[in-house]
Amino acid sequence: MAVQFERAKQEDHNELIDLANYVFSHSSSPTDFPTLLPKLYKKEYGFADQHYVAREDGKIRAAVGSYPMSMNVQDQTLKVKGIGMVCVHPYSRSTGYMKNVMKMAMDDMRKDDIDFSCLGGQRQRYQYYGFDVCGQSVKFLLDKKNVEHVYGKDFEAVFTFTPFTENEAEVKQALVWYESGPVSVVREPERFLDILRNWTCQVWRICKNDMFVGYLTASSKGEEINELVLDGHLMEGVDQVLASWMTQKHIKEVRYAVPVYEQKQLMALMPICEFHKLEMPEQFCILRFDRVVQAFLQLKAGYENLPNGFLVLDIADRQKIEIVVKDGQVTAAISEKPANLHLPYMLALSLLFGITGTYIQSAQLAQCELGPAGFDAKGTQIFRQWFPLPLFFSKSDAV
After folding, report:
1. Predicted confidence band of residue 268 (pLDDT cuts 50, 70, 90)
2. Distance (Å, rounded) from C-alpha 336 to C-alpha 314?
3. pTM
4. What is the distance between the alpha carbons of residues 110 and 384, in angstroms, rounded to a whole number?
5. E-strand spans in the chain?
6. SS3 345
7. In what order do the strands lie in the sheet with 253-259?
């Protein structure tokens, strides 16, 4: 039997879809990838060659998709790759095929100077490749009783909702509103609605006084809101958007995850929702700590008063980076200076980007080796105020 490991070709599209549909339908529930993720698996988008495959006698028996994206964090652009469609034919399990194709994908990320990668899946399986759960979002639940007590039993919807159609002007406007946020992934206009339809979501226009003011994406029953974007000056009214949505759709409760840097939304929802909880939205692998830390620490400096200072962190198997904050301006760069701390890679993910932060940070820092520059009480205080960072990846962009 001849086995080859290589990049897929565009003409492999149908075979890749057939393999993934069979594997995921066989292991869980009926799956159709072009319906589940139209932004990637519509044939006209041409993403087949973004897959790494194992072939047995010419037939694809394992695949990993590695999809390039660009993320704008204020004025900085980060290079991202999302990992998806990880599958092995049931008859080819325990062959090591997945390890080989994942290694190919990760090796190419390093060659391409990718800043970070993200995926979903069983945690320990992907820790071998440098991924772990981290990032921060706040998951809210708003129920019917909250709406009745806050707005009254006779609350009438302030906002109205209609299905989003292929209206070029409205798609363009929605994209402008989306890109005006502090963090956005580059979305091509021709793929914008298919990106929003990710994970079988429905896309809805939001109107106020018959004026188009935003959009939201929701699960088929409307109880899970995956993305909500409004004309900027209306963002503090997100609570009334959700209350109007529940009222118009006759829904008893909705759940909605908000990145922690969306301060207006957090302030609007925290006083009225039944509960909220911190969550880690994704599994991340950080390849360039210098660029990712600079982008998200600068973002945090926009809504938190960060103390001036500098730290040199030596992150095992990645980089040694010097981080400087001065009067709200952040720089992070690869450095040869003596380190304050040596951080094991997985612990660095948790300390710099996790949600445990202030709860077990002291215990985690105690597991780090002191560097020759030392790490005194002032350094500890600076670390606690700088970290964790507000890393987030929208479900609409997830693969």
Report:
1. very high
2. 10
3. 0.95
4. 30
5. 3-7, 51-56, 59-73, 76-88, 116-119, 132-134, 137-143, 160-163, 183-185, 202-208, 211-218, 224-230, 253-259, 275-279, 282-286, 309-315, 320-326, 329-334, 341-343, 369-370
6. helix
7. 160-163, 202-208, 211-218, 224-230, 253-259, 137-143, 275-279
